[in-house]
Amino acid sequence: MAAARFQIFRAESDRVLWRFLSANNRSIARSAGDFPDTGACMVSLKELIRVVDAASILTVRTGQGLWRWQLRAGSADLAVSGRQYQRRIRASDAGSAFQDLAGKVQDVADLRAVSFDRTGT
């Protein structure tokens, strides 16, 4: 059975970020920001895994009146929800579920960047 997993993602603009995907490849979370290269992204991901259990889940209102969650350690946002929610409680529950799943990840050393190019679509 497939499990939720991290993926390093490079967009056509050479932005690099990570995503956390469910077993059926739906985006659960993504990095709070993007990175200049894969190495910097990997350092951030390893830091997230190190502190995920002690981090806090915050819910924030979006401009469309929906809710997102953010994972925060100290004053730094480490992860944000992969989608928006109509109810605050759903965003909070989803953030807690991510925190639990990400806390079970042991190692990300074997991750390779996946490129994505929409210029042909």
Q: Secondary-structure element sequence?
A: EEEHEEEHE
**Total number of strands:** 7
Output the strand order for the largest sheet. Answer: 4-5-6-3-2-1-7
Number of helices: 2
Q: Shape from CA axes?
A: globular
Q: For the CA atoms, what is the radius of gyration?
A: 14 Å
Strand proportion:
25-35%
Name the helicity range: 10-25%
Main pleated-sheet profile: 7 strands, mixed
Computed structural class: alpha+beta
Distance between the ends: 32 Å
The averaged pLDDT comes out at: 86
Low-confidence runs of at least 5 consecutive residues: none
Describe it for me?
With 121 residues, the chain is α+β, with helices and mostly antiparallel strands. 25% of the residues lie in helices and 32% in strands. It has helices at 38-51, 88-103; strands spanning 5-10, 16-21, 27-31, 56-61, 67-73, 76-81, 113-115. The longest helix is centred in the last third of the chain and has 16 residues, at 88-103. The radius of gyration is 14 Å and the shape is globular. The termini are far apart. The relative contact order is 0.22.
List strands and helices in order, with pairings:
Layout (H helix, E strand, L loop, with lengths): L4 E6 L5 E6 L5 E5 L6 H14 L4 E6 L5 E7 L2 E6 L6 H16 L9 E3 L6
Parallel strand pairs: 1-7
Antiparallel strand pairs: 1-2, 2-3, 3-6, 4-5, 5-6
Question: Which features would summarize this protein structure in a list?
Answer:
121 residues; alpha+beta; seven-stranded mixed sheet; 25% helix
Briefly characterize the structure.
This protein is of the alpha+beta class and 121 residues long.
